[in-house]
Write a structure and sequence with these properties.
This protein has 113 residues and is an alpha+beta fold. It has 2 helices and 5 strands; from the N terminus they run H-E-E-E-H-E-E. It is globular and about 35 Å long. The structure holds adenosine monophosphate.
C-alpha cells in the first residue's frame, strides 16, 4: 500500500517540518497551523490512517506516542496541556495518518467544538 499523506512525506524527509523529536518509531513536530501558543503533533512512522485502524499489535506504539508527547511537554516545562486524537472526517481529522495533538499555552474550553 502506498501512503502519500503529507505526514508520510515529512517522515521521508521530502517536506520540512519543525522537528522536536525523532526515534525509530515516531516523529514529533510543531503543527503548521497552531491552534494554541504551543501545538505539536506526535505521529508514528508506521502508516496507520487513524485510531480506528489500530489493533492489539499497536498497543505499545500508542503508549510510546503518548509518552513521547509527555516528555516533550516536560522539556517545555508545561504543567497543563490538552491531548487530542481526531478520528474520522466528522471529528475534524484532515490528515489520514494517525497523529496526536498536544496543545498548551492558553486556557482551553470544554466541551470542545
Ligand atoms: P487533524 O485535523 O486532526 O487531521 O490534524 C492535522 C493537523 O496537521 C492540522 O492541525 C494541520 O495544521 C497539521 N498539518 C498539516 N500539514 C502540516 C505540515 N506540513 N506540517 C505541520 N503540520 C501540518
Amino acid at each position: 500500500m502506498t501512503n502519500t499523506t503529507i505526514f508520510q512525506k515529512i517522515i521521508q524527509g521530502e517536506i520540512p517540518c519543525e522537528k522536536l523529536y525523532e526515534d525509530k518509531l515516531c516523529i514529533a513536530f510543531n503543527d503548521i497551523s497552531a491552534q494554541a501558543p504551543i501545538h505539536y503533533l506526535v505521529i508514528p512512522k508506521k502508516p496507520i490512517p487513524s485510531l480506528r485502524d489500530c489493533t492489539e499489535i499497536d498497543k505499545n506504539l500508542l503508549g510510546h506516542l503518548i509518552l513521547v508527547g509527555q516528555k516533550i511537554a516536560e522539556d517545555k516545562k508545561l504543567s497543563n496541556w490538552r491531548t487530542v486524537i481526531n478520528t474520522g472526517a466528522e471529528s475534524g481529522q484532515t490528515v489520514f495518518h494517525l497523529h496526536i495533538h498536544f496543545l498548551s499555552g492558553r486556557a482551553m474550553l470544554w466541551p470542545p467544538g
